[in-house]
Structures are given as structure tokens and as C-alpha cells.
Amino acid sequence: VNESMGSGEYLEINEDLHRLLTIGKEMTILTHSAFNMFVGELSDFWNLILADDDRLNLDPVVNEFNRLKVERLQSYIPLTEAEIHQTIELKEENNKYYVKFNAFNNAPVGDLSITFGGIAKGYANDILAARLIEENLIHGSIFGGASSNTTLGNFFNNEPWIWPVASPKNP
Questions:
Q1: Residue 149 has what DSSP assignment?
Q2: Which residues pair with 39 in a beta bridge?
Q3: Are strands 11-13 and 96-101 parallel, antiparallel or unpaired?
Q4: What is the pLDDT of residues 116-171, one digit of tens each?
């Protein structure tokens, strides 16, 4: 989908990706962009900065080049409902699913992308949970990493689940 950005063409996708894009679009709108699925390039930028040993000198607060890059990337992120609808178009025809990813604010290829970092693991957990319940597996947990955990029923002996919470600064 990201590679099709700005092509002006609808891309055929599978039903699960269509559903995930629909959820991402709805969440972007419903949260007034507090969650925004169009921050892929900005997220990648910060991941590179945070992984670099010289991150303090690369921080946009002190690095003019990176400050300008962040400002440029932010300018390509649709924020309003109208901008979001303009940027991604989803449709279903004859049991086939399509997406058209339009460049927002004349974003060049490589400066605007979709990320599912905030919803994909939870979505996968929901699908797994539904399938496990269909198989009558109603006690257990799905561990999708530190940020995505799903439980099925109560713990053994009808005990509630207890989840330890650890500080990322003090393991």
C-alpha cells in the first residue's frame, strides 16, 4: 500500500488488510489524530534517532537539519477528517477490496507512509482470541509483546489474572 502512494490507482487488497485499514482510518478520525496511522515516516525517523549512539546530537531540538526534516514530515500528515478521507480511499466491490493511497499536501514518495504500529498486534490478538474461543479454548492468554496482551476467561481455578507492571527505566 505504501508503495502505491500517489499513484492515483486503486490497489486490490485482501479482506483482512481492508479491515485493518478501515480500523486505522476510523481510529485516526475518532481520536482527532491523537492516533494517526499516517505517521510511518515520522516513526521511522524517531526509531533511527533513538537507536543511534549519537542521539543527543541528532535530536531535532539541537540539530537544525533534523528539525527541518521533522517539520517536513509532519506537514505531510493528514490531521482533519476531510484530509484523512482525501488521503486514503477504501472500497469494496463484488467481494473484492481496494485502497487508494493519495499523496497528502503533495508529499513525495518516501515522505508519507502508513504504519500499523499502534493497532496491528492488538488486531492480530483479537483474531487469534476469536479463533481460540471458536475451538472452545476459553482459558489462557495471548502475549503479543509488552504492549499487546489478551486474556481468555479467568486464570485457572477461576482466579483473576494478575499482570506485573515493570518500569522501562528500572527492570
A1: E
A2: 113
A3: antiparallel
A4: 887 878 888 888 999 999 999 988 888 877 777 888 887 777 777 777 777 767 65
Q: What is the CA radius of gyration of the chain?
A: 20
- Who contacts 100 (Cβ-Cβ below 8 Å, separation ≥6)? 4, 8, 9, 10, 11, 88, 89
Instruction: Give the closest residue to 25 by CA, choosing from 117, 87, 92.
Output: 87
Give the tens place of pLDDT for each residue, 53-85.
998 999 999 999 999 999 999 999 999 999 999
Q: Label residue 4 exposed, middle or buried (CB < 10 Å: 0-12, 13-18, 19+).
A: middle
Closest CA to 92 of 18, 8, 7: 18
What does the alpha-carbon distance between residue 17 and residue 46 come to, in Å, rounded to a whole number? 25
Predicted TM-score (pTM) of the model is: 0.77
Q: Which amino acid is at 42?
A: L
Bridge partner list, 11: 99
Residue 156's Cβ-side half-sphere holds a number of Cα atoms within 13 Å equal to 0
